[in-house]
Amino acid sequence: MSRFAAVAFDLDDTLCRHDHDIDALYRRAFEAAGVEPFGEPDELWPLLDGAPDPNDRVGYLGAGFARLAAQHGRDVDPIALAEAFESVADDSRVAYLPGAVDGLTAAAAAGPVGVLTNGPERRQRAKVEALGLGDRVDAIVYAGDLPRRKPHAEAFERLTAALSVEPGETLYVGNSLSYDVAGAHNAGLLSAWLRADPDDAAAPYRPDYVLDSLDELASLLACEPEAEAEADP
């Protein structure tokens, strides 16, 4: 018997990742915008400011392209480049991360399963359908369509209401400390941080559990002590 009444997951970079050829996508964006390419994708990503804004992805990408253009001495319309990037991207090109299917199976054996994503339904539904998530989970909340997204409590409250469970009996699994762990804490859920690197530190956040892979979730749900990992001090 699981210690949790329900388990819920973040979507992007927790259950799935984009399955694009990023270099090809980057070049196609310049071609679509009619701009001579400059820079590389690996240069663009660090110039993006925090997590993507689900309500203004073009503005979010445009700010990154503006910074990249300035570094390369190019005079371009960064918004046009961002719009071109969005036009050639395919939201259905996603794949499950390692351990995700097993993690979903273990969660379903423990109780109701939910997904809470900060993106709006118009963008995220393509991913959900491509992954067949609708057949694997009991509720999906698209926080991008709510007045406030993670880490605000409202999105998590919608989730637990949809699953008909109490927040304190629900485990939320996500890769972001500032959105997933902080949001779960604010709403009274238990949190499991899926860290990308074993050397990553949780401080100053305090997730209830730390996972290095969703393969570890089954043991955590089954109450096996070795599956628990203390948050970094």
Automatic annotation (TrEMBL):
EC number, UniProt record: 3.1.3.-
Which stretches are annotated as coiled coil?
Answer: none
The biological processes this protein is annotated with in GO are: small molecule metabolic process
Q: Which InterPro entries match?
A: HAD-like_hydrolase (IPR051400), HAD-like_sf (IPR036412), HAD-SF_hydro_IA (IPR006439), HAD_sf (IPR023214)
In the UniProt record, does the keyword Hydrolase occur?
A: yes
**UniProt keyword Magnesium present:** yes
Annotated SUPFAM superfamilies: HAD-like
Q: What class of enzyme is it?
A: hydrolase
| Family note | Belongs to the HAD-like hydrolase superfamily.
Name of protein: HAD family hydrolase
